[in-house]
Write a structure and sequence with these properties.
Structural class: mainly alpha
Strand order of the largest sheet: 1-2
Number of domains: 1
CATH class: Mainly Alpha
CATH topology: Ferritin
CATH superfamily: Ferritin, core subunit, four-helix bundle
Largest sheet: 2 strands, antiparallel
Radius of gyration: 17 Å
């Protein structure tokens, strides 16, 4: 590695981050991936909430939506702190939900993949404050998977 990570016009000097991360370039890459995932989840959950079949379902989806908004803000602040750069806007990705039931399955899978990403990020840093932040987000994502699984099972009772 040449000591720099490409980040737009300026370069992030990784030697300043080696004491915090096992591989600073990989962490920043995963952080960008996580931020993009949070932005996509916000858009997805807004649409899912709109087609939820009842108040109980809407409340559960709204809970996940609010958490994703919080995560987006926290991760964006971390990115800004580490790179001295603002998060670049995420390209608009259209949400195309064909079936509420299938969307719930897709959301559970996405949440579980997010858990794996946050676990990897958690294990790649030596900084306790960053670990605590990632641990909280990882737990929220596991909770979302649980809530969405409950909604999927509840559909059989409707």
């Amino acid at each position: 590695m040449n000591g720099e990570i490409g980040c737009g016009e300026r370069k992030l000097e990784t030697y300043k981050l080696w004491h915090i991360f096992r591989d600073p370039g990989e962490f920043i890459y995963n952080l960008n991936k996580a931020i993009k995932g949070q932005a996509e989840a916000i858009k997805f959950y807004k649409e899912l909430r709109n087609i939820a079949p009842n108040t109980f379902h809407k409340r559960q989806v709204e809970h996940a939506l609010e958490d994703e908004r919080k995560h987006y803000h926290i991760l964006g602040s971390l990115y800004n702190h580490l790179t001295d750069r603002r998060v670049q806007p995420v390209d608009e990705i259209p949400v195309n939900i064909k079936s509420y039931r299938e969307a719930l399955k897709e959301a559970v899978e996405d949440e579980l993949m997010a858990v794996e990403l946050y676990r990897s990020m958690y294990l790649s840093t030596f900084d306790i404050a960053i670990r605590d932040l990632l641990f909280d987000i990882m737990n929220d994502e596991m909770e979302h998977a649980d809530r969405l699984t409950l909604l999927y099972a509840d559909l059989a009772l409707l």
